[in-house]
Design a protein that fits this description.
Helices cover 1% and strands 43% of the residues. By secondary structure, the protein is mainly beta. The chain has one domain. Strands 4, 5, 8, 9, 13, 16 and 17 form a seven-stranded antiparallel β-sheet that branches. A four-stranded mixed β-sheet has the order 7-1-18-21, with no helix packed on it. It has a three-stranded antiparallel β-sheet with strand order 3-19-20, with no helix packed on it. The longest helix is centred in the first third of the chain and has 4 residues. The protein is globular, with a radius of gyration of 20 Å.
Length: 310
């Protein structure tokens, strides 16, 4: 049994360009395909046909975390406090912010103590179920946003809205690059989409995917959230206030006597969902969208948390 403890300094987090499938970004969407781009990095996703969505890199992704930890096995709501050692835990959350193209220190964590010889296979975040995304993208031809039109579209700093019949409800604006002013859009997950059925659920877990992923909504630090009316429904309110996210550490890490640095990587490539109109929207989108594709929303998508020790 190891009793020595090795100090590991949390030095930075960084963003990756690795494609991340959206495992839990939206209660209303399945796993989205990535948006497609040309050689000039302009989005060229086919927006004819029915309304749809695709995953894109955000400018920034933000979570408010109450607990951040390393785990010896895949964490769930009922075991994470037993199998995880926490780098941070507080009733006052810290913001985890990943900005595309930047690596910087996470404020508020400081030094951490980990047990020498202990192997960690997963990471965990207990965050608010309200999370944020900031997006800016270029298209190869003009798109319509909330009030404007142009080849650049960006998030407007709005709360997620599912009504597209009025452009005033859009959470994306379009225009010139000089007009762009992306702000954080906000979304609160009260439920997820079930992994195999078109129904609401309190969890969206993939234990067999790439080392295991868990996403569970919780009403407290120990209890899974429930539907207020007892029946899973996207329209039903729930008592969810937390989002527990368990992620694999690839490769797994072990603290040794020479460990001095812990590199915590908050990863959010493809961390936004772009929702767009089609030419056959069935009247669900504003009439203007019939002639020019509309970008109705830039919503949150997935996130990852990986770790390196050296």
């Amino acid at each position: 049994m190891h009793t020595n403890k090795q100090m590991a300094r949390l030095i930075r987090y960084s963003i990756t360009t690795t494609f991340l499938i959206t495992l839990s970004g939206s209660a209303f969407a399945g796993i989205n395909d990535s948006c497609t781009y040309n050689a000039q990095s302009q989005m060229v996703t086919d927006m004819s046909g029915s309304p749809d969505s695709c995953n894109a890199d955000p400018v920034a992704r933000k979570l408010s975390a109450y607990k951040v930890g390393l785990c010896t096995e895949l964490p769930y709501y009922d075991n994470y406090q037993k199998v995880c050692d926490f780098l941070f835990e507080s009733t006052t959350p810290i913001d985890l912010i990943a900005e595309k193209g930047f690596s910087k220190s996470i404020e508020g964590l400081g030094d951490v103590t980990l047990v020498e010889g202990k192997a960690y296979s997963h990471s965990v975040i207990l965050a608010s179920n309200t999370t944020y995304v900031k997006g800016l993208m270029e298209f190869d031809s003009p798109r319509l946003g909330k009030t404007g039109s142009g080849t650049y579209c960006w998030s407007t700093g709005s709360v997620a809205n599912w009504d597209r019949t009025s452009r005033s409800n859009f959470t994306a604006e379009c225009g010139l690059l000089s007009e762009a002013n992306p702000q954080y859009n906000t979304m609160t997950n009260y439920s997820f989409k079930h992994v195999s059925q078109n129904i609401a659920a309190m969890e969206r877990n993939f234990p067999d995917y790439n080392g295991g992923w868990t996403n569970e909504l919780m009403s407290s630090e120990t209890e899974k959230a429930t539907f207020d009316n007892g029946t899973p429904s996207f329209d039903d309110t729930t008592n969810a206030i937390y989002w527990l996210g368990g992620r694999p550490i690839n490769p797994s890490v072990t603290v040794t006597s020479s460990t001095t640095n812990l590199d915590l990587k908050f990863l959010v490539s493809w961390g936004s969902i772009v929702r767009y109109s089609g030419t056959t929207d069935g009247g669900d989108w504003h009439a203007d969208c019939a002639s020019t594709p509309c970008i109705g929303a830039i919503n949150i998508a997935g996130f990852d948390l990986n770790v390196e020790l050296n």
